[in-house]
Every structure is written in C-alpha cells, then in structure tokens.
Amino acid sequence: MERLQATVSLLPGAALALRPLPQVLRVEIRGTRIGIVHGDPASLAGWGLAIENLAPRGGTTGAETVARWAREAEVDAFACAHTCLPWAGRFGDVAVINSGSAGMPNFRGRHEGIVTRIAALDDPAPDALYAVRAGLLRPEAVPITYDRAAWQKRFLRQWPVGSPAHASYWTRIEHGPDFACGDALPLGGGTAA
Fold first, then answer.
1. 132 within a domain of the structure (yes/no)
2. How far is CA 48 from the centre of its chain?
C-alpha cells in the first residue's frame, strides 16, 4: 500500500480523475448487459466473486447475492478479476466469469495468464479454455503468454526474497497454484471450450 500511495502521489490529479468512475462499468453487447468489475460489485477490492467465497464451494456468496448485485447494477452478467483464481458459471439467470490473473499462472503446470474475451456464441476463440453463456454472448477464458523469465526477474527486483509480496506470490509465480483448469467450472452453465 505504501508503494501504491507513493506512486499515486507522483501522478497529480490521478486519484481525483479516478474517483468519479463507476464501481460497475456497464456495457451492452447484442442485447446483453455485462457489468465489468474489479473485485466484486460491492467493493473495488472485494472478494465476493472469488471461487473460494462461492456458496457451492462453502462460501457465503450465493444466488441471492449475485441476483441482487445484478439487479442493482442493471446487468445480466458480470466479468471480474482481482481474486487470483479463475472460474465461470451461473447463479440462476446471471452468468459470471472471473479471469483470475492476467499476470500470474492460473493453473497448475500452465505458465500463462488469463483474460476474458466476450464474443458472440457463434464466434468462439480457438484457444478458449472454458466459457459461460450470457444471452447471445460467450464470455470465455483465453490464455495469454508472457516472458516468464523476464517477469520473474522484474518481480524479484521489486519484491526480493523476504518481502511480503515475495512471501505471498513467489510460489505461485514459479509453479502456479494448486488449481486445475477443470476446477474453474464450479457452477451449472459453464462449459469446457
């Protein structure tokens, strides 16, 4: 947080410019309204849409909460990130896709990030890992490769051994999480691509 606050202090007006942005960015594609969030619809740094917080996995976020968030945001589906582990599924009528992390491995044995691509049902990405249906759309998880060695070197310059971030992230950066691609489809309505 100290480094983040120091960086913001070097960018005069940045915090002021970001303040009026909506918590949920709403876009409409082919008649389906998608709410794009970082975290969850209730908090920029929220973990309500993290896979470990989903009711089917023993957490507290259930269909009622997701339906309420969708009503309040006036959306049919959510696309989110921030929570480190990716997944896709449905809560009743509300589709959700969480890209996990674009800059770190998301699955055991796979050293790539994940981004969400929102496409028409009839235009799937050839390399999509899994998807969920949202109206006439197919939000899908697409792998992105990066220079692993360069990323590790850059991370270690910023967060050397013994730093809090190194303790929290290095094992995942080096080996990936203990999470398989099949684990990313916890709820009905998701499909392996």
1. yes
2. 12
Number of domains in the chain: 1
Mean pLDDT of the chain: 90
The pLDDT value given to residue 191: 58
The DSSP-derived string for 6-69 is HHHHTSTTHHHHHTTS-SSEEEEETTEEEEEEESBTTBTT--TTSGGGBGGGTSSB-HHHHHHH
Is there a contact between 177 and 107 (Cβ–Cβ < 8 Å)? Answer: yes
CATH of the domain at 27: 3.60.21
Q: Between these two residues, 182 and 36, which has the higher pLDDT value?
A: 36
pLDDT of residue 189: 54
Question: Distance between CA 1 and CA 80 in Å, rounded?
Answer: 22
Does residue 158 lie in a domain region?
no
Q: Does 67 fall in a domain?
A: yes
User: For residue 167, how far is the Cα from the chain centroid?
Assistant: 22
Contacts for 146 with CB less than 8 Å, ≥ 6 apart: 103, 112, 113
C-alpha dist (Å) from residue 1 to 4, 5, 75, 93, 164: 5, 6, 32, 37, 11
